[in-house]
């Protein structure tokens, strides 16, 4: 007799086999007509300029992650709002605490400056600026 874990393993194996069969079938059925236009980088109908492997600013990812974090957290408010009257004061206080923690995180990200799109360039001191008592000379 197969145990409960064996049934789960069987489902994983069947799922992997199904995905493998679907991938092989798609590879055999699909048309393949590569050409330079199809292999070029797609930029909304514009002709690609420069190399496709460029370094993106980290702020794109930070803003996306912060958005996802707060978006998922706010989704928790909907089920609570639907059953608010049945839960009572304890659930109300818990949700107030949840919103306060959420706002504290938002204020932290805001104060840290991660939501600012354009950050001022940092001042990088030169060695001459750090040496005390050295006079600047014009050359």
Task: Quickly describe the structure.
Helices cover 62% and strands 0% of the residues.
Structure write-up:
The chain is built from seven helices and no strands. It has helices spanning 4-29, 36-39, 58-75, 77-82, 84-87, 89-112, 127-130. The longest helix is centred in the first third of the chain and has 26 residues, at 4-29. The chain has one domain (4-112): Methane Monooxygenase Hydroxylase, Chain G, domain 1 (Up-down Bundle), CATH 1.20.58. It is an all-alpha fold.
The fraction of residues assigned to DSSP E strands is under 5%
**What gross morphology would you assign?**
flat
Low-confidence stretches: none
What is the overall number of helices?
7
CATH topology (fold) name = Methane Monooxygenase Hydroxylase, Chain G, domain 1
Please outline the helices and strands.
Layout: H1 4-29, H2 36-39, H3 58-75, H4 77-82, H5 84-87, H6 89-112, H7 127-130
